[in-house]
Amino acid sequence: MKRLLVVWAVFAMTVCLAGGANVAGAAELRPFTAGSLAAIQAHFAGKPFILTLWSLECHHCAKELQLLGRLVREKRNLPLAIVSTDSPADVQALRAALKRHGLAHLDTWIFADAVPERLRFAIDPVWHGELPRSYLYDAAHRREAHSGLLGEARLKAWLKQNGN
Amino acid sequence: MVLRTLLCCALAGFAWAAPVQAAEHAARGPAAKSASLAVGAALDARGRLWLARVEQGRLQVSFSQDGDASFSAPVAVTAAPGIVVADGENRPKIAVADNGSVHLTWLQGLGKPMAGHIRYARSTDGGRSFAPPIIVNDDRQEISHRFDSLAIDGKGGVAVVWLDARERKDRGAKGSPETQVGLYAALSTDGGARFAPNRKIAAHTCQCCRTGLAWSADGPVAFWRHVYGRNVRDFAVANLKEGAPRRVTDDDWRIDACPHHGGGIAADGQGDLHIVWFTQGARRQGIFYRRISGTDFAMGEPMRLGDPARQAGHPAVVAQGARVLLSWREFDGRHFSAWAMLSIDAGRSWGPAQRLADAAQAADYTVPLIDARRALVVWNTAAEGLRVLPLSEDTP
Asked: What's the CATH code of the domain at A136?
C-alpha cells in the first residue's frame, strides 16, 4: 500500500511540475474516477459534446487523436472530453501523445481505479473495452455510442448538426 | 520549488479528491499495472501445478506438489528486473514436458507503447534453473512483436506464435488498407535448444488481441483474430506445418478499432479442435464456443457462454482426452466472478456452467487447466490472492 501511495505521489508531483498551478483547471490530465463522467456532463450542461476514450495500446487511437487534433486546429474550443483508459503510471507518454496531436489544452483524463472495468461499466455496461470508443452527446445529453474510428465526414456532420 | 511541488500536490490531492473516494482510488490507481495479476499456469505429467508470475519485474516459476496448498520457492527466469508485460492479453506462458523440461514465453516490453520482443527460456533440470532467455522474433526493430502463444508436443516440438509488425511501413497516420501486422511462428524440434527461422503464417491480422496455439495430432494449430477485407474481425486457424489459414468464425464484426479481446484454442485426444472467442459482430455478440472436427473440418454451431449482461468475457479452453474445459470471467459492474463448464464427450454435450468464485477487487482472466485427474481454474485476484478452483465433475 505504501508503495502505491508513493507511486501516486510521484504521479501527482509529475503533473504538478509540468502543469504548474493550473491544477483545478481543465488543461491537465486528471484522474478519471467513479464520479468523473458526471463531472464532465455537468461541465457541458445543456451543450452537446464528444466523449472520446482511447489508449496508448491501441493502433487506431492514434488516427482518432490525429483527426480530433485537426478539427481542434480549425476550432480550438471543440466540445471534447478525452479519456485515456491507461493508468496514471503512463502520464508522461499520455501527455506527450496529447501534445503531439494538439489536444493537451482540452479536458483530458486518465482512468484511475484499481479495477478499470468499474469505470468502463459505469460509462456504459455494454461497452467491452474496444477502442477508440466515442459518445456523441446532444444538447439534451442523449448520446450515441460508437466503437472504432468516427471518420471525419461523420464527425463534421455531427458537429454541424449540433451547432458547431 | 520543493515547496511549490508539495503545495501543488496538496492542492492536487484536494482538487482530485472530489467527488468521493477519489483519494482511495488515486492511491490504488497505478496498481492495475504494477500488480501484474496476469499469470501463466500448467499441469505436468505428475499432476503438479506450475505457475509463472511476474514479481518486481522478474519472471518467476514455482510449482505445487501438495494439491496446491503450498508452492516451491520461486526460481527466477529473468535474472535482472525488466519489463515483463503481464496483462490480460499478454501473460507469461508456461508448458512442462513429460521429461521435466519447463518452457516459457513472455513479452518483454521495450519501454514505449506497443513495442516488445517475444522471449523464450527453458529449464532442462526440472525447473531448478533456466537457460538465459532468447529473443524469438528474428526481426529486432523496437516495434510491436506481441501476443505470444506457446505449445509443446512433449517429444521435442516447441512452437511459438505471435503478432508481428515488421512489415509495417507507413508508421504515420495515413494508414494502409492492410493492417501490416501478421502472425509469425518459430518452431523447434529439439526441445527448444534451437528454433528454425521465423515464418510468416498470415498477413493482415488484428493487432491487439491475444493469439492461441494448441498442439493437435496433426501438429501445432494457431488461432487468431484476423482481418477479412478492410475491417471484418473474424477468427482464423492455421496448422503451422501445413500453413494455409482457414476462417472459423463468421460473426461479421466490422470495426476500425482494437478489441483487446481475443480467444483460445485447444486440441483434444480425438483430433478435434475447440475454440472460444469474443465478438460484437453483426451476426452474434458475446463469447462463444465451437467444435471443429479434425477429420473433415466440419464446424459445429457456435454456443453462447455466460451472461452478456454481465460482460461475460475473455474465454479460454483446454482439453485432455475427451474432456474439454471452458472458463471465462463475468463482471456485474462491481465484482468479477470466475465461471467454467466441462464436457466429457469432446464438446458434444456440456455440464452446467459453474460459478467458481467471486473477487472483491481486480482480477485476472481465468486460466483453465485439465489432466486425466483434475479440471481446475487458476484465478489470480488482488484481494483474495491466487486461487486454484477445482470443478465438480458430476457427469452432465
From this structure: 3.40.30.10
Q: Alpha-carbon distance A89 to B231, whole Å?
A: 32
Q: What is the mean pLDDT of residues A88-102?
A: 94
- Domain membership of residue A151 (yes or no) is yes
Alpha carbons B366 and B353: distance in angstroms, whole number: 14
Residue A68 sits at the chain B interface (C-beta within 8 Å): no
CA B374 vs. chain centroid, Å, equals 21
For residue A112, the chain B residue with the least C-alpha distance is: B29
Mind telling me how many Å the CA of B23 is from chain A's nearest CA?
10
Q: Return the sign of the alpha-carbon dihedral for residues B158, B126, B39, B269.
A: positive
Is B186 a domain residue?
A: no
Residue A131 lies in a domain: yes
Cβ B218 vs Cβ B271: under 8 Å: yes
Structure confidence at residue A12 (pLDDT): 47
Complex ipTM, two decimals? 0.82
- Residue scoring higher pLDDT (B17 or B270): B270
Banded model confidence at residue B169, pLDDT cuts 50, 70, 90: confident
CA-based end-to-end distance of chain B = 69
Mean pLDDT of B101-124: 96
Structure confidence by residue, pLDDT tens digits, A110-154: 999 999 999 999 999 999 999 999 999 999 999 999 999 999 999
Neighbouring residues of B40: CB distance < 8 A, sequence distance ≥ 6? B51, B52, B53, B91, B92, B93, B94, B104, B106, B367
Is B146 a domain residue? no
Interface test with B, best of A5, A23, A101, A124 (most B CBs within 10 A): A23
- With respect to residue B300, please indicate whether it lies within any of the assigned structural domains: yes
Domain that holds residue A48: 25-161
**Rounded to an integer, what distance in angstroms lies between the CA atom of residue A22 and that of residue A30?**
11
| Count of the separate structural domains present in chain B | 1
Residue found under cell 483434475: B374
Residue A129: list chain B partners with CB under 8 A: 259-261
CB–CB contact A130 B258 (8 Å): yes
Q: How many CA atoms lie within 13 A of A20 on its CB side?
A: 2
Residue B184 C-alpha cell reads as 509469425
A60 touches B: beta carbon within 8 Å = yes
CATH number at B386 reads 2.115.10.20
Tell whether A11 is covered by a domain: no
Q: What is the per-residue pLDDT for A3?
A: 46
A35, B260: Cβ pair inside 8 Å?
A: no
SS (H, E, C) chain A: CHHHHHHHHHHHHHHHHHHCCCCCCCCCCEEECCCHHHHHHHHCCCCCEEEEEECCCCHHHHHHHHHHHHHHHHCCCCCEEEEECCCHHHHHHHHHHHHHCCCCCCEEEEECCCCHHHHHHHHCCCCCCCECEEEEECCCCCEEEEECCCCHHHHHHHHHHCCC
The CA distances from residue B121 to A26, B77, B91, B95, B243, in Å, are: 47, 7, 15, 11, 26
Cell numbers for B236: 482464423
Q: Please state the separation of Cα A76 from the chain's center in Å.
A: 16
